[in-house]
Amino acid sequence: MTETNSVFETRSLSIFYGNFMAVTDVNINIPRHKITAIIGPSGCGKSTLLRAFNRMNELVPDTHIHGEVLFEGQNLYEKNVDPVEVRYRIGMVFQKANPFPKSIYENVAWAARIHGFKGDMDELVESSLRQAALWDEVKDILKQSGLSLSGGQQQRLCIARAIAVKPEVILMDEPASALDPIATLKIEELMQELKQKYTIVIVTHNMQQAARVSDYTAMMMLTGETRAGTVIEFEATNKIFTRPSDKRTEDYVTGRFG
Amino acid sequence: MRKTFETEIQQLKDELLVLGSMVEQQIVGSVEALKKRDIDASRRIYEIDLQVNARRYAIEEQVMVAIATQQPMAHDLRLLASILEVSGELERMGDYAKGIATINIRMGEQPLLKPLIDIPRMAQKGADMLHRALTAFINEDADAARAIPLEDDEVDNLYTQVYHELMMFVIQDAKTIERANWLLWVAHNLERVADRVTNICERTVFIATGEMKEIRATDDENSK
Question: Which domains does chain A have, with CATH numbers?
């Protein structure tokens, strides 16, 4: 993977909650227009690492990092970087769908409007909902509350909302763990569409999901005396799930622990 | 969960060993029957072949269920995929033995062109290689698996010897051509058995190391 094809590059990245080191010494490159999955046992720092990519960890008091997270070559944690701007360019979708208690239309339009969008809002809402594979289901009920939708539809609405501000990256933290298999499949197929335009990083507990949807996989584990999480293997997904190099990855993906 | 799965894998390996020993019997037995011109014994090879086929399908079914229910990854996945492949190889080896049985039956009242010496050696050698290849497979012993295909040359040399001998008969008396051809076909089947042993060994290396490549540089199937 050459550097120009990477959207993110982490350099000796460690993440702390107060004195507690949650993640240590992560050095990975996230490839452009690919889906990268982060897998590993509970509590190994997957979500913490994911949130470091758009500075979401800062919303937790007393969080700080060592090392660097380069986004398109620029360190996201430099003093002059505006975290709000970062979160526009690097959107996020959470485990639990969290639409605003507003209309479907407003859910999509709101962030773009705040962000100073001056174009044709109807068009933006439609194209965002289309990209999120939700348009056909909601085009006649745009005035209804976003909360009236099913769980799977709400999650796609959140994806549409993330897309509306035209981000470059979409971070997904267990986006389908609360959904049934059919809604999950829709999200997974949507991800394949979205990667044409966006870089996607997804945290998932579901290994079959990681194997199905991702191009690259980062395997995380707690290591060393500090028991902080780190990436122990980062490879093409096909390799991770058929012939991993690290014995610990092998044990994890075959269900021997975790 | 893991314990259930491991029991399933062990059962599959056991099934594969049973299948393998049936095929070994088929190979040695088919040549033995030919040597003695024992038609009934050749018919029994047919019956074993039906059982071999049924067992192969049963293994395939079990592997499919394991894949669907356990969603195997990494080593487990390589092992299950290889069991599918190897059970197919064994079944084909059984077909070679059945082919030899068919020749004995078709020869009817005609005597053997010559006493069988090298052909039973080929059968014995092939069955012996098969036995050790399956042991290496079950133990996932890559080193043992890499060594076995080198012995294939021995089988190939016996084949060449048989070939030249039979050609001499044909040159001296063209009327022997049909009987020579039958024996040549028997030798060819045995030579193929040894080639398929190599395929089993390649799968063993794959399970143990994740490396998928031919152990021998030449592809015997294409070079003949």
Answer: 3-253 (3.40.50.300)
| pLDDT of A1 over the 60 cut | no
Does ipTM surpass 0.90 in this model? Answer: no
Domains with residue ranges and CATH for chain B: 2-223 (1.20.58.220)
Angle at B6 between CA A203 and CA A37, to 5 degrees: 10
Is residue A68 classed as helix, strand or coil in its secondary structure?
strand
Structure tokens at A132: 């999120």
The secondary element (H helix, E strand) that includes residue A235 is strand A228-236
Token pair, residue A63, equals 């969080």
Distance CA A175, CA A58 (A): 21
Residue B2, both tokens: 């893991």
Cα B159 from Cα B184, distance rounded (Å): 8
Distance from CA of A238 to the nearest CA of B (A): 10
A150 lies within 8 A of chain B by CB: no
Which residues lie below 8 Å from residue A208, measured CB to CB, with a gap of 6+?
B71
CA of A255, closest CA in chain B: separation in Å?
Answer: 7
Cβ proximity of B133 and B86 under 8 Å: no
Contact A250 B74 (CB under 8 A): yes
Distance CA(A69)–CA(B190), nearest Å, equals 63
**DSSP E strands, chain B:** none
Report residue A226 CA to chain centroid gap: 26
Asked if A254's CB is within 8 angstroms of B73's CB, the reply is yes
Q: Which residues pair with A23 in a beta bridge?
A: A15, A229
> Residues of B with CB below 8 A from A256's CB?
2
Report chain B residues whose CB lies below 8 A from the CB of A243. Answer: 74, 78, 210
Cα(A31)–Cα(A9) distance, integer angstroms:
9
Q: Which residues of A touch B2 (CB under 8 A)?
A: 254-256
Average predicted confidence (pLDDT) for chain A = 94
Contact A208 B71 (CB under 8 A): yes
Look at strands A63-71 and A74-75 and give their pairing.
antiparallel
pTM of the model: 0.84
Three-class DSSP labels, A3-27: HHHEEEEEEEEEEEECCEEEEEEEC
CA separation, residue A12 to residues A37, A49, A69, B106 (Å): 20, 12, 9, 75
> Which among A207, A214, A253 is the top mutation candidate for probing chain B, defined by the most B β-carbons within 10 Å of its own β-carbon?
A253
Chain B contact set for A249 (CB, 8 A): 74
Q: Name every chain A residue with its beta carbon within 8 A of the beta carbon of B76.
A: 254
A4-54: pLDDT as tens digits: 599 999 999 999 999 999 999 999 999 999 999 999 999 999 999 999 999
